[in-house]
Amino acid sequence: MPSGSRRPPSRKGSMADVPKDLLDQINRLEDLFIVPTEKLKEITTHFVKELEKGLSVQGGSIPMNATWCMAFPDGYETGTYLALDMGGTNLRVCEITLLEEKGEFDIIQSKYRMPEELKTGTADELWNYVADCLQQFIEYHHPNEDMGPMPLGFTFSYPATQEYIDHGILQRWTKGFDIDGVEGKDVVPPFEAAIAERNLPIKLTALVNDTTGTMIASAYTDTEMKIGCIFGTGCNAAYMENCGSIPKLAHLNLDPDLPMAINCEYGAFDNEHVVLPRTPYDIIIDKESPRPGQQAFEKMIAGLYLGEIFRLVLVDLHQNPDCKIFEGQDIKALNKAYSLDAGFLSAIEEDPFENLSETHDIFSKQLGITCSRPELELIRRLAELIGTRAARLSSCGVAAICKKKNWETCHVGADGSVFNKYPHFKLRGAQALKEILDWPAGKGKGRGDPVEILPAEDGSGVGAALIAALTLKRAVAGQVAGIRNPEALLNCPMKPSTKEAGDR
């Protein structure tokens, strides 16, 4: 939605019967949540500086982690690879065969539920469970086979510092994990120990973040792809930097023209609260979160928090003597923190009926609240404001990377539940990019834009396999920067293609 628009175009005149006290609150919420073009540009300018600070020797709030993924795929990578994706809800194991045909692959996969008790258990319990799942997968798909070590790309989507591509020191747990004794340590040795204990034919080749995987998987079939993004439970991005622009790696004396994928971890943008337009509700979310003062950007735009922002506003309005909503009703269900998720807001924004009857039914069934027509109008507008703000702010990170790299055109591969499922998120984000980057009239509708955000390929599966393939290719070629034990990789039987990638 353009920054100056204060009413959704599909519901003109829908506020005609809303009493003045509710209209006043709607106007107040619009003032809080609408982010105008000028503010988007200010945020993006500060974002560029923070990206650069993260690459500096001193560092900053945004970690800008070097990943040691040092090339885009050329589409001719071949071989069979395992991919392991350890998410917050599921564990997924894939076997991916990259075929001779350019950009083609076959995949078989199995999903395993990540037990909730593991998230607060011990490190041994976690790695033993992961290894058990890998063992089940191999025994099922390769019974009684005498296999050489299969290269594995491990998608470990938690902030990690990597001195090597097959190594990663966990900076902090996210996604609800809180296992003692893991933060600040390399996660690879205990994982490898659990694999060795079961004598599994697996060689960890690359530890991968899902944003880097998303970028690489998308680039496998699209040579315009330069950025990978996640807009889901959390938010993050990865892009390819040149080593000469990474001062904190200068001591390694790498060729300044070598590419290096950077996992930004930019959910931590503006932890100092310099530029983001935080509302009182954002401040409450931060204060009551397990880690106050961290992930400031993420807490305003990620799926984990959208429903909670919405809930906090409604509870506040119910308690406001100047605005009577849900009067005389028990809001016990609404008072429960994090009881509403982004899907709840999605359903409200998708309600196709002029009288918002589906929204009425959702509130009645899930919260035990009967809403009047004016209350439904306020609810709908609030959902639009929160969803639109998330989409517009999310574009600041993409725009900042483009500005830093002086990219006027590129494709961005995006994955995550908010990007894929939240109504209007893509169009609102495209509109914000148009405003930030000053595109000419007619651009900013999504398809064909100079910077175009597209649904990504399977970053945690195909992307992890491709990064394993690219790492093997480097080891074979003797390009061993950032590979801890290149000799061990040469024992993997699946040798990738040695065709040279074209210019990108």
TrEMBL record:
Q: Which domain of life is it from?
A: Eukaryota
Q: Which GO terms describe its biological process?
A: glucose metabolic process; glycolytic process; intracellular glucose homeostasis; mannose metabolic process
Per UniProt, the enzyme's principal EC class comes to transferase
Catalyzed chemical reaction(s)? D-fructose + ATP = D-fructose 6-phosphate + ADP + H(+); a D-hexose + ATP = a D-hexose 6-phosphate + ADP + H(+)
All copies of the Hexokinase N-terminal domain together span: 26-220
Which SUPFAM superfamilies does this UniProt record tie to the protein? Actin-like ATPase domain
Question: Known Pfam families for this protein?
Answer: Hexokinase_1, Hexokinase_2
Functional pathway: Carbohydrate metabolism; hexose metabolism; Carbohydrate degradation; glycolysis; D-glyceraldehyde 3-phosphate and glycerone phosphate from D-glucose: step 1/4
Where does the Hexokinase C-terminal domain start and stop, copy by copy?
226-470
Q: Does the keyword Acetylation apply?
A: no
Q: Give the similarity note.
A: Belongs to the hexokinase family.
Q: Which GO terms describe its molecular function?
A: ATP binding; D-glucose binding; fructokinase activity; glucokinase activity; mannokinase activity
Q: Does the entry feature the keyword Calcium, yes or no?
A: no
Coiled-coil residue spans: none
Q: What is this protein called?
A: Phosphotransferase
Entry EC no(s): 2.7.1.-
Q: Which organism is it from?
A: Pleomassaria siparia CBS 279.74
Q: Name one GO cellular component term.
A: cytosol
UniProt keywords (A-Z) are:
ATP-binding, Glycolysis, Kinase, Nucleotide-binding, Transferase
Q: Kindly give the PANTHER family that the UniProt entry links to this protein.
A: HEXOKINASE (PTHR19443), HEXOKINASE TYPE 1-RELATED (PTHR19443:SF16)
